[in-house]
Amino acid sequence: MILIPVELTRVVREALAALQAEGKLPAFDLPALDVRSSKRAGQGDYSVALMGLAKPARMNPAQIAVLVAEQVMKPDYVAKAEAVAPGYLNFWLDEAWLKAQADAIIAEGEVLGELAEGQGKRAQVEFVSANPTAPLHIGRSRGAIVGDTMARLLEAAGYAVEREYYFNNAGAQMRALGNSLRIRYLEALGLPYEMIDDERKSFYQGNYLKDFAAQLVAEVGDSWLNKGYEAFKLYAEVKMFEMIKATLARVDIQHDVFFNENTLYDSGANDAVLERLDRAGYIYRAAAPETDGGAPDDDDAKEAGKGEAIWFRSSRFGDPKDRVMVKSSGEPTYTLPDIAYHVNKLERGFDLAVNVLGADHNTQYQVVRNGLTALGYDADKVHVIIVQLVALLRGGEVVRMSSRAGNFETLDDLIDQTSPDAVRYMLLARSSDTHLNFDLDLAVKKSNDNPVYYIQYAHVRCAGIFREAAARGVTDDGADLSLLGEPEMRFLRKALELPEVIADSVEFFEPHRIAFYALELANIFHPIFDSVRVLGVDVPPELAAARLRFFKAAQAIFRRSLRLMGMTTPEVM
RNA sequence: GCCCCUGUAGUUCAACGGAUAGAACAAAGACCUUCUAAGUCUGAGGUUACAGGUUCGAAUCCUGUCAGGGGCACCA
User: Fold this and answer.
1) Whose C1' is closest to the CA of A466: which nucleotide?
2) DSSP string, A487-545
3) Do residues A438 and A464 lie in contact, with contact meaning Cβ atoms separated by under 8 Å?
4) pLDDT 10s digits, A355-371
5) Under a CB-based contact definition with an 8 Å cutoff, are residues A427 and A142 in contact?
6) What is the 3-state secondary structure (H, E, C) of A438-470?
7) Average pLDDT over residues A221-234
8) Distance (Å) from CA A8 to C1' B24?
């Protein structure tokens, strides 16, 4: 398949250059031109607006369009190029070529719609990156689905992609986890344990720790009675990661690399970053920041009371305040390793690093960007997708999520109640910029309210035709695709947009586009299924063969679209 | 107070500065001897929160106002 808009844009630019060379158009720098698929029947299959040329050319744009229409070297797949007031140029695909694309689609198989743009380039997508303290909850799920789908789309665009999970198994939260497991362990042994206030505050109440404790008792009996929290922490961490990986696997997500934040301490990467920032003049030691940005309730006395910390002059890059790199206790904050981690990414030579974060981290990534810029890196190589928060709705009411309180809705819960496919689709089919209301009642419903069924049903219906055709001995041998009609062509036109959907998703880092595309495909498909019969008594054999071939192409497009979304491709439903 | 995101049909959401703002669901009415009705067909539904501005052209860009969400730690 070819990227038709890109090809046609090139063709139009060549025509304009030729017109300028011949003096039919004055010389001027061409502004950006965008050929895109047309929205409306009657306006061609692809079109471009040339009105922007009117001013630099000092000519009527409709005249320019006419000139270009005459000049343009039509590729073999274009039947007609037509100028329309006030300055549009519409392209009509050649129908014979269009019908023949059914074979081209089938021939591409698993890599259908693959692009050349990422060839030879390496991309990394970092997503999920939850510390192993609790099962994945819905808030993380959105980033997980968006990240993995982004990775799949980058692969389709030709990139070699690595999926990475960044985590920290040190720190107070993990200590609390170990301690919580220890308490559950004692409980499981029937030993009462009275928590002190600090413990109660940091206690992880989730049932998963009861399960871990029960397993631990089964494995080691009471021999861990006198062990400290470290042993329990380690045990909990291993179990937690098993659980997280298993959950992710249910929605077909696998990370290639698990990057432990601790290695940045051990390797001296943190110190190196600090030293480089210092040498560049972005570091100072003080009890209070030079710039505090006027945050509310900002109690300088409180900060000053903590002693001298090491600060990064983030405010030099537009940040309202400077940020602490090393606490007065001598421990780095998470910001320092975060910057060191991104330095590490860029040093690994990725051409592109995509980072999927929740909206609550959006200040943090600005600081990381500033750090990279201060160190002389091209911060634009790191692209951050901020996914807005997910609200769970049940019975029209917002369900509160809190991993500490243990009343959260986990990704596992959600999958249990719906299906991996429904979860993937519903979390994907929204722009990352918008808040997502996840209606649990709706997701639980197995009805056509849920577009996931509608899309998969198209794939299933194709499979049904193939089964029945095989049973009746009908084949597509020697299919004459020229026999296909207007409805099939309508589907094929949309099918040919797959490469541009992939290209746009990657260009704008908007993986939700594939979800809407798949739904549009299904919307076009189902009416065709009803009206374009393969096995009807009144369908001549030659027509049946052509239609059967068409449905093979249709199924291939659905299969590819579903796989790009990480969804299954059922044969029956 | 400052920063980020959002405001589009009854609802959930699309629409990379281009032509008549699109789907799905809900609500109204028709279709199953026919490759799966988890489907199809027919209508209806809009001052794109509001006010200015830029532009040949604005849902989209800019400014302001209002409303909702998230953030503004020597927590991660």
Assistant:
1) B35
2) HHHHHHHHHTTHHHHHHHHHHHT-THHHHHHHHHHHHHHHHHHHHS-SS-TTS-HHHHH
3) no
4) 999 988 888 888 999 99
5) yes
6) EEHHHHHCCCCCCHHHHHHHHHHHHHHHHHHHH
7) 93
8) 32
Spacing of A438 CA from B6 C1' in Å: 16
Our measurement of CA A570 to C1' B42, in angstroms, reads 32
Residue A441 pLDDT > 80: no
Amino acid letter, residue A85: A
**Cβ A76 vs Cβ A97: under 8 Å:** yes
Q: What pLDDT digit, counting tens, does each position of A256-306 carry?
A: 999 999 999 999 999 999 999 999 999 999 988 887 665 554 444 445 557
Q: How far is the CA of A397 from the C1' of B6 (A)?
A: 20
Distances in whole angstroms, Cα of residue A33 to Cα of each of A22, A47, A88, A441: 21, 11, 12, 45
Nucleotide nearest to A433 (CA to C1'): B5
Whole-number Å distance between alpha carbons of A247 and A421: 13
Tokens of A224: 């861990």
Smallest CA–C1' distance to B6, residue: A434
Instruction: Give me the amino acid identity at A149.
Output: T
Q: How far is the CA of A435 from the C1' of B1 (A)?
A: 25
Nearest-CA residue to the C1' of B7?
A434
Instruction: Flag whether pLDDT at A49 surpasses 80.
Output: yes
Average pLDDT, chain A: 90
Q: How far is the CA of A156 from the C1' of B3 (A)?
A: 35
Nucleotide nearest to A324 (CA to C1'): B74
Could you tell me the distance in Å between the CA of residue A558 and the C1' of nucleotide B35? 18
* Ordered domains of chain A (ranges, CATH): 4-93 (3.30.1360.70), 171-250 (no CATH), 278-333 (no CATH), 390-444 (no CATH), 449-564 (1.10.730.10)
Tell me which DSSP letter residue A92 carries.
E
Tens digits of residue pLDDT in A53-91 = 998 888 899 999 999 999 999 999 999 999 998 899 999
A23: amino acid identity, one letter: G
> Which residues have CB under 8 Å from A81's CB, separation 6+?
A68, A69, A72, A74, A89, A90, A91, A92
Cα distances (Å, whole numbers) of residue A570 to A108, A458, A563, A567? 20, 10, 11, 9
| Chain B bases closer than 7 A to any CB of the protein | 1-7, 12-16, 18-20, 22-26, 34-41, 56-57, 68-76
For chain A, helix (H) and strand (E) counts, in that order, are 22, 15
